[in-house]
UniProtKB/TrEMBL annotation:
Family indicated by similarity: Belongs to the PduL family.
Keywords: Acyltransferase, Metal-binding, Transferase, Zinc
InterPro entries referenced in this protein's UniProt entry, alphabetically: PTAC
Any Gene Ontology biological process: 1,2-propanediol catabolic process
Protein name per UniProt: Phosphate propanoyltransferase
Species: Paenibacillus mucilaginosus 3016
Lineage, top ranks: Bacteria, Bacillati, Bacillota, Bacilli, Bacillales
Zinc as UniProt keyword: yes
Entry EC number(s): 2.3.1.222
Reaction(s) this enzyme catalyzes, per UniProt: propanoyl-CoA + phosphate = propanoyl phosphate + CoA
Function: Involved in 1,2-propanediol (1,2-PD) degradation by catalyzing the conversion of propanoyl-CoA to propanoyl-phosphate.
Keyword Glycosyltransferase: no
Cofactors that this protein relies on: Zn(2+)
GO-annotated molecular function: acyltransferase activity, transferring groups other than amino-acyl groups; metal ion binding
Length: 189
């Protein structure tokens, strides 16, 4: 059996260096709240407000380190609350996505694009992928859950020697399957 730990990804934002400066002040550096499952990634102590056409979230957690482009990842339910209609995309693929207003303690920024519903995916270290015969960008079928078990299709394999084995689904998907952080998923094909 190919078992993978599950990480439930709540709404969060990745900020560019320029947007960190605009929202928190020139030269500002994010403070680590806790390390995440992927090496070098962390949840920051800092949060920002996110304001859409219909609603807002006052404290959206920033994930670090800084990225090349700002990206807000929300569930479909979050998107309805904000009044935006983002596509399901792999992280980093933000071209043509909706924008949103961000507010921090030192300023605000209106991003023109960057809001996505993250495609469900599994991070594989290259050794894990090789052992199981899995290729980068391969689409997988995965079973999660207990009494509310769900089979997810179109789960994107992301392979790198910089990754640690972990499946990422959003809160809508986790709630539908009755899954929590640390549960296991089984790769079926």
């Amino acid at each position: 059996m190919k078992k993978v730990p599950v990480g439930v990804s709540a709404r969060h934002i990745h900020l560019s260096v320029d947007h960190i400066a605009a929202l928190f002040g020139a030269g500002y550096e994010l403070k680590v709240l806790k390390d995440l499952s992927q090496p070098g990634q962390f949840a920051a102590e800092e949060t920002v407000a996110v304001i859409g056409p219909k609603g807002k979230f006052d404290k959206v957690r920033i994930l670090g380190p800084a990225r090349g482009k700002t990206q807000l990842e929300v569930s479909r339910t979050d998107a309805f609350s904000l009044g935006v209609n983002p596509p399901v995309r792999e992280s980093g693929n933000i071209a043509g996505t909706p924008g949103i207003k961000l507010v921090g303690p030192a300023g605000e920024v209106e991003i023109e694009e960057g809001v996505i519903v993250a495609a469900r995916h599994i991070h594989f270290h290259t050794e894990d992928a090789a052992r199981w015969g899995i290729q980068d960008k391969q689409k997988l079928t995965v079973r999660v859950g207990g009494e509310r078990a769900v089979i997810f299709e179109e789960v994107v394999a992301r392979v790198s020697d910089q990754y640690a084995l972990d499946m990422h689904i959003d809160t809508d998907e986790a709630n539908a399957a009755g899954v929590k952080n640390g549960d296991e998923a089984e790769i079926l094909s």
